[in-house]
Give the backbone structure.
Amino acid sequence: MNTSEKQDKQKRKNEKAYKEFKDAVNMSASALEKWLKTEESKKVGWDSGDGESIGHKSGERIIDILHKKKSELTAADYKHMAKVHGYVSRHLAQKPKDAKDSNWDYSLKNWGHDFSKK
């Protein structure tokens, strides 16, 4: 594969990650920022090793991404966008019976997805 083909492949991969991220993240940057300040957002998820959950850190990263223009996105941003889509997709498939105001709901919101919004 030559350089041009590699660049085209990466561009297609980035476009896919961008679209899937936009589909998965249905909270605005300001709504997510407000959510991450709540006690509910801080009480769920796996500890990343420093007392803050992985999902909570992801939410902060999502806010940064949402504030960027598409032309400003980096390779690391696209990688995180793909990770967010994967998490949200897997998590939605595990929806509990009583989802509203559950740890499942709170965890999804940390990743920028409010399942009650359509």
User: Anything to note?
Assistant: The two ends are 42 Å apart (CA to CA). The longest helix spans residues 3-24. Helices lie at 3-24, 29-36, 39-42, 54-67, 75-92, 103-110. DSSP finds six helices and no strands in the chain.
